[in-house]
Each structure stands twice: as structure tokens, then as C-alpha cells.
Design goal:
The complex is a heterodimer. By secondary structure, chain A is an alpha/beta fold. Chain A contains 18 helices and 6 strands. In chain A, a hairpin with a 2-residue loop joins strand 5 and strand 6. Chain B is an alpha/beta fold. Chain B contains 9 helices and 10 strands. In chain B, the strands form 2 sheets. A 6-stranded mixed beta sheet of chain B has the order 6-7-8-3-9-10, sandwiched between helices. In chain B, strands 2-1-4-5 form a 4-stranded antiparallel beta sheet, covered by helices on one side. Classes of the chains: A alpha/beta, B alpha/beta.
């Protein structure tokens, strides 16, 4: 039964394990990458919870009696509260940054009177919306919980919160921040996932395409043709971009359908219109986002072409390119949960340094009307792309494209490899 | 009249290995010149340098007076190179492959069509040219690639082991193609082979290469007479001291 299986399996394992590129991509990178990803997820969740715990609210107390003071004490159990003296909410907006606060709670002048009469007291709750990620809006939820607790202890439904959001420094009445967060959730998730799939898919295409030329022994012929070698590089990149773009469109259509099946269950307020709230990018914003995606894609492809030039066949090329994936996955997963500006400075620099972070950062920025951040990202990634493209063109212009190989072996084996090459 | 190829003191070092160690030879215009030697002698490295794929560590190589390092682009316009074990694009048909290659050599659609028509005739593949190249046998693929290398009527065709791995009939067909093309179009051919008997019948002149150096050079008949041998294999064995 299965005669020769053991012998054949041994050969397979020897071949796979002895290929250092496979070993690196299949064993060592996952061993390093998954703990890193786990740490990032843990950090993201912890940071989000801490941020929620540190929710800070400015309280405009227009009532001077005891009930409002007691109400503020209830709030103070779960969030940090700073009572302020201002004549209206617009004045309080200017103080948000000073107190590092995200919420404003306005207690009406008849608050105590209503409580004593067991009548409904309407408290206005203004929550800042900054497009920060999946946990945005958690502050408003905590305030809700505090109010519910107060109502349980005093009288059922005696305090009624009236929600409003603060978008780009302006108060927008009648919008529940939680509804808005739910509505923006698809965007917070969609962009990082799109980036992950688009970049990893297109890098595989580019790497395979270069490695195929080597594996099928067509590259040597190509390099002796009367054509510009830069045209070979550009042809490879353009072909990969076109195929990846078609793949991305197909993906987005499918993903949109997938997300819409979730969104159907989200109780959306009929009055929440992202366009009127200014939560869709301007024309310039869309342009910057498109540019950011394009230059990032180009840099990823050029990087894939360079690293795949060190592979001798398709399998090795895919294994080598796999080593770049952590640089795509880490920022995508991190920015799915957190706002980049909420990260510690060292991690923020790390995320900004990775070119693949920038389309995700740009997507959030242009939605919030911050075109400058998106533009600076485009400039940075464009500069990175130029450097990578230059290196790739130099690689194609020299004999390195044929002779470059990743060497993990000792000198004795290297000699053997060279001898094979020159024969 | 200048040489088709003029190689002077060419050295190529890979790490600690001297692949070529002062290689010097000349190829006359319109002749078939063979670089012969065992595996690892440096034949492929020499041909890759002539074809502008590799840079010599030192020494110079000129193709029709054009330096392969300084004038690489110009050299590529007048040569074609057929690597050993070269492949064709698997998902293109034979026709499409020839068309793709012809388009690099001329902007004229008519000229490109003429090249492809001529190449199709050389291959002898007829209707099979409509099939994808991944369905071709090794011999069919090699005939396609040889036709590709000759269809542009280059001034110099550099062919690395043109009949390597082919059966007797396919090898014969390929050799006939090369001989006919040189005769009809005056193409100069520089080829390599480790099959010395084959080269004896194909080449006007040969150079015997061993450990990156030319150890003997001349017409096959002259070499056989000089070393009192019946074939080039014996000549080579005597030159390197094996016999």
C-alpha cells in the first residue's frame, strides 16, 4: 500500500526545507510575524479601551442646584469631567483641545426643577467625530451608560440625552454619533482591507511575472533585444497594475456587497447624510486619494520586481515577496482600530515611514477634509517610489538582473553555485 | 575589413572564480565560428559578454567595431542571441511569439510580416505555429527559437548550444537552417557547443576553450592535421594533455 510514499515524502521535505527562501517565508517569518501581529492587535484593543476609559467631557452647567451637581458626580465615575463657564456651546468648542476633551455635555437651567418634578430633563451631549477608527463613538456610549445609571437611581427616563456631533469643529444637531460611527465603519474597515489585498495581490503578480521570465529562460533573450531596458521594467509594472486594478475592482464590488449585508442590520438614522455632514472627500481629496493609491501601488510593484530579481524561479519569488507582507498587514490592521495620531510617537514614526500606510491615512484624512496630510503622504510615497524605481531601473540596466541571487549558503556552496552558473 | 567579433584579453570573475582568464579570439565576417569545450570551460560566459548580457571584468570585446560595454545599445541592434535552453512565452502561439519579436526590430508592419513569414518557413512548423508554444516539443521549440534568432538577418547571430538536447533529426534540421542562412544572407555566426563532432561539420573555424582560455584555434581540418587526430575530440584531449 502506497509503495514508495515514505521515500518520496522524504525527498519532498528535503527539497522544501533546504530551500532557504521557502524556509524563511514559511517558517521564520510567520514565527516572527504572528507574534508581532498579535502584539499589535493587543495594543490596538488596549489602546482603544484606554482611550474609552479616558473619555473627557466639558460640562456646561446652566443649573445651579444640587441635582446637577449630583448628575456630574455620576458622570465623573466613568469619565473625566471638567466643568466650564461659557455662555454657549460654540465657546466650549474652542476649549476642547485645551482640555484634550472629545465630549461636551450641556445641562439645562431647569435640570433640578425637572428632576424634582420627575419630569424629563433634556441634556445635550455633543460628541467629536474625527474618523478615528472602529472604536470612535465609545465615549458617547459611556455617557449614555452613566445617564442610565443616574436614571435608575433617581427616576426612570428622567434624564434624556439629546445627541449632536461635532464635525470639523462645527456642531451638527440631530445626529447620533454611534449611528455615524456605524455608518463610517465600512470605510474604516474597507480601506485597510482593500490595501492589504490589492498590494499583496499585485506584488505577487509582479514578482511572478519577473520570475517567470527567469524560469522560462526568456529574460536573457529579452535583454539582448534592441529595446530600452527601462521599457521592460515599465511593461512589467504596467501589466501588473492593470491586472491588479481589474482584480481590485472585482474585489471592491464583492466587498461592497459583503459590507452591505452587514449595513442592512445597522439602524441608520434617516437624517444621517454623509454628504451634507461634509464626511465625503472633496474632488481634490478624491484626487489625492487616487494619487496616494497609485504611487503606493507603483512603489510596491517596483519593490516586488527588485526582490523577485533575486529569485531563480516563481516559487522562490513568491516566497521572497511574502517577506514584505508584514509591512502591509501591520499598518492596515493597526489603522483599522486606531487613529494614527493617537499612537505613541515611536510607533507613529514607524507607521508613517511605511509607504503602504499612506493610502489608509489619506482615506481618513481626506474624509475629514485634511487634504494636507494626504498631500504630504503622496509626496513622501512618491519620493520613496522614485528611489525604488531608480534602483529597479539600475538592476535592469546591469548584469545584476541575471546574476543576482540571495545567498544563504557558505562559501564552499557558493563556489559550486558560481561554477554551475558559468558552465 | 574589420572583424565581426574581436575579443582581447577578456577576464570575467564571479566572486573567487575566474570564468574567463585572458580570452582572445577573432571572428571573421560571414563565417561560422565555434567556441568548443567541456562544461564549465566558460563558453556561455564568453557568449553572454559578446551579447551585452554580462560585463567583462577586464579586456575588451568589439562587435563590428562597436564596444560591447560602451556601445551596448548599438550592438544589440545588429546581433541576435539564442541562449542555451531558452524558452518561448508559454501562452503565446508560435505566430504571436515571432510577431512579438519582429516588432522590436522594425516599425514597418510590412517588414515585420515579412520577417515572420520567413521565420515560419525556417521553422517548418506550418499549422502548428497557431498553437501555444507550451504544446511544442523541445525540438519544435528550438526550431522556433533558431528561426527567431535568424529572421531579422542580424549581422551577428550568437547561438549558445543551438542543438543542445535535440534528437538527431531535429539537430540536423537546425544545423541545416544555420548553414543555409549564413550562405544566403551573409550572417556571421558565433556558436558554442560541447559536441565537437557536430561543430566539426558546421563551423568554418573553431576555438578550443578550457578553463577560460583558448587552447587551440583554427579550421577543423588544420587542427586535426596539426595534432594528427581523426576528429576534434582527439585534438582537444591532446591539447589539454589527456591523451
Amino acid at each position: 500500500m502506497l509503495k514508495g510514499f515514505g521515500n518520496f515524502l522524504l525527498k519532498e521535505l528535503k527539497e522544501l526545507i533546504r530551500d532557504p527562501k521557502i524556509l524563511l517565508a514559511m517558517v521564520i517569518v510567520p514565527l516572527i510575524m504572528f507574534p508581532i501581529l498579535g502584539a499589535i492587535m493587543n495594543f490596538s484593543m488596549t489602546s482603544a479601551m484606554e482611550t474609552a476609559g479616558k473619555t473627557t467631557a466639558l460640562v456646561i452647567n446652566n443649573d445651579s442646584e444640587d441635582n446637577s451637581t449630583q448628575f456630574i458626580r455620576y458622570l465623573n465615575i466613568s469619565i473625566r469631567v471638567f466643568p466650564i463657564s461659557v455662555s454657549n456651546v460654540n465657546e466650549a468648542l474652542g476649549l476642547l483641545a485645551q482640555y484634550n476633551a472629545t465630549e461636551i455635555i450641556e445641562i439645562p437651567s431647569n435640570f433640578s426643577q425637572c428632576i424634582n418634578a420627575k419630569q424629563k430633563a433634556v441634556v445635550k451631549v455633543y460628541s467629536t467625530f474625527s474618523g478615528g477608527g472602529m472604536f470612535e463613538g465609545i465615549g458617547a456610549s459611556i455617557i449614555d451608560v452613566s445617564i442610565e445609571q443616574f436614571n435608575r437611581d433617581v427616576a426612570p427616563d428622567v434624564v434624556v440625552p439629546e445627541k449632536a456631533v461635532i464635525i470639523k469643529g462645527q456642531v451638527v444637531e440631530g445626529v447620533d454619533p454611534r449611528t455615524l460611527s456605524s455608518l463610517m465603519l465600512s470605510q474604516a474597515i474597507a480601506m485597510p482591507i482593500t490595501i492589504m489585498i490589492l498590494l499583496s495581490y499585485s506584488m505577487q503578480i509582479a514578482a511572478t511575472s519577473v520570475a517567470m521570465e527567469k524560469e522560462e529562460k526568456t529574460l536573457e533573450t529579452l535583454l539582448t533585444l534592441p529595446m530600452d531596458r527601462f521599457a521592460i521594467l515599465m511593461g512589467k509594472l504596467s501589466g501588473s497594475i492593470i491586472v491588479a486594478a481589474i482584480g481590485a475592482v472585482a474585489y471592491m464590488v464583492g466587498f461592497n456587497y459583503y459590507m452591505s449585508s452587514f449595513m442592512a442590520t445597522v439602524p441608520l438614522g434617516a437624517n444621517v447624510d454623509l454628504v451634507s455632514l461634509g464626511l465625503v472627500p472633496s474632488l481634490l481629496g478624491y484626487l489625492l486619494l487616487g494619487l496616494s493609491l497609485f504611487v503606493t501601488l507603483l512603489s510596491a510593484l517596483a519593490l516586488a520586481v527588485i526582490v523577485s530579481a533575486f529569485a531563480e524561479d516563481v516559487r522562490s519569488a513568491q516566497a521572497i515577496v511574502g517577506n514584505i507582507y508584514p509591512l502591509i498587514f501591520i499598518p492596515s490592521l493597526l489603522l483599522m482600530y486606531l487613529d494614527v495620531n493617537a499612537l505613541p510617537i515611536a510607533l507613529r514614526i514607524f507607521i508613517y515611514a511605511i509607504p503602504f500606510s499612506h493610502p489608509i491615512i489619506a482615506a481618513k484624512a481626506v474624509t475629514m477634509g485634511d487634504n494636507l496630510t494626504a498631500a504630504l503622504g503622496v509626496v513622501y510615497v512618491a519620493a520613496f517610489t522614485i528611489v525604488i524605481m531608480y534602483l529597479a531601473s539600475r538592476l535592469f540596466a546591469t548584469e545584476k538582473i541575471l546574476t543576482a541571487k540571495l545567498r544563504f549558503k557558505g562559501l564552499r556552496r557558493r563556489r559550486k553555485a558560481v561554477a554551475e552558473e558559468i558552465s | 575589413m574589420s572583424f565581426a567579433v574581436e575579443a582581447k584579453n577578456v577576464v570575467k570573475v564571479f566572486g573567487i572564480i575566474h570564468a574567463l582568464d585572458g580570452l582572445t579570439f577573432n571572428v571573421n565576417q560571414g563565417e561560422i565560428f565555434g567556441l568548443i569545450g567541456p562544461n564549465g570551460a566558460g563558453k556561455t560566459t564568453a557568449l553572454r559578454i559578446v551579447s551585452t548580457l554580462l560585463l567583462p571584468t577586464s579586456g575588451t570585446v568589439k562587435v563590428f567595431d562597436l564596444d560591447v560595454v560602451k556601445n551596448a545599445d548599438e550592438v544589440r541592434r545588429i546581433i541576435t542571441y539564442l541562449p542555451e535552453e531558452a524558452g518561448a512565452y508559454r501562452n503565446l502561439s508560435g505566430w504571436e511569439y515571432l510577431q512579438f519579436m519582429a516588432n522590436f526590430n522594425t516599425k514597418s508592419k510590412r517588414e515585420a510580416q515579412e520577417m515572420v513569414r520567413e521565420a515560419a518557413e525556417i521553422t517548418g512548423l506550418h499549422e502548428r505555429l497557431r498553437d501555444k508554444t507550451k504544446t511544442y516539443s523541445k525540438g519544435m521549440k528550438r526550431r522556433l527559437l533558431v528561426a527567431r534568432a535568424l529572421m531579422t538577418k542580424p549581422k551577428l547571430a550568437v547561438l549558445d548550444e543551438p542543438t543542445s538536447g535535440l534528437d538527431v533529426l531535429h539537430a540536423y534540421h537546425v544545423r541545416e537552417i544555420i548553414k543555409r542562412y549564413v550562405k544566403e544572407h551573409g550572417v556571421t555566426v558565433l556558436l558554442s557547443s560541447h559536441n565537437m563532432l557536430e561543430v566539426e561539420h558546421l563551423c568554418d573555424r573553431v576555438a578550443l576553450l578550457n578553463k577560460g582560455k583558448i587552447v587551440a584555434e583554427g579550421k577543423p581540418q588544420e587542427l586535426k592535421e596539426a595534432y594528427k587526430s581523426t576528429n576534434l575530440e582527439e585534438v582537444f584531449a591532446k591539447v589539454v594533455g589527456l591523451a
